[in-house]
Amino acid sequence: MTTDQIPPEVRPVVRVGAPTERRNPLSADLDLMSTRDMLAVINEADRRVPAAVAEVLDEIAAAVDLAVTALRDGHRVHYFGAGTSGRLGVLDAVELIPTFNSPRDWFCAHVAGGQDAMWQAVEDAEDNHRLGAAEAAGCVASGDVVVGLAASGRTPYVLGALAASRARQAATVLLCANPEAEAARDVDVFIGVDTGPEVVTGSTRMKAGTAQKLVLNAFSTAVMVRLGRVYSNLMIDVVATNAKLRGRMITILVEATGCSEELCRQALHAADGDLKTALVSLVSGADVTKARAALTRSAGQVRGALALLAT
User: Fold this and answer.
1) Quick check: is 95 catalytic?
2) pTM of the predicted model as reported, rounded to 2 decimal places
3) What pairing do the DSSP bridges indicate for beta strands 171-176 and 189-192?
4) What angle do CA 257, 261, 262 make, to 5 degrees?
5) pLDDT tens digits, residue range 69-80?
6) What are 32-59's pLDDT values in tens digits?
7) Which listed residue (21, 44, 126, 262) is catalytic?
8) How far from 34 is each of 184, 200, 207, CA to CA, in Å?
9) Catalytic: 126?
10) Catalytic hit among 9, 55, 59, 95
């Protein structure tokens, strides 16, 4: 018998005690406020999120180090989440490809309920511990890093995936908005962001979702920086898939080298459109062939290639 065949009155009921489910006294009578006052309450609540994220930077750094080590050793990073949390994981993973030219299999996002859950709620999918465990068992390998995304810190699908991943000798991380989550003791790194009660009680797409987005942005960006896909603060592995991005490549070369736009265009053309090769060539004065060889020897690290060419 499937869940939708079970009468509503006998389906499982769970009352969650996470901070995200508590009532926020500052938004009492929200429905009686003027539109402007309502927005002010939401904005004031949102201001708490960056400060809450700042309290867990050490934990985020630990997760970054795990992911960098895994990716350098040929392993992968997985996100497992449900609802808003799962969708944020997908968003983060897919944006790394055009921004940093990240290999498609570096970051893998899994959502309870599959692709359909990106557009609509899939009933009871997040409550399926076995589904999360089975998905993890089917794709997670020893040496991978698995990041569980769950606002409450107790989502069965996510906890199932984390348990199965631990059994496969993967490193595990739990990101949630519940510093009191019991699952904290079962993972290698616990990131519990204290965002408190939501403006609309239980609506974790709000502060909890914003916190997860901030943490994921910081986490994946730091991983890409550590892996040499940023030079200074420039995205040197950007994929030029449209006119704007092709223009950005020229801008990056001008900013990074101080050379004229025309010289940067010539270098990029000589490097067959490879931004990093053109950059190394312009900064070092080496020809494209030597620049490309130095990048190969330094595993794609621009600063490492420049150091090789300087010796």
Assistant:
1) yes
2) 0.88
3) parallel
4) 120
5) 999 999 999 999
6) 999 999 999 999 999 999 999 999 999 9
7) 126
8) 40, 16, 21
9) yes
10) 95
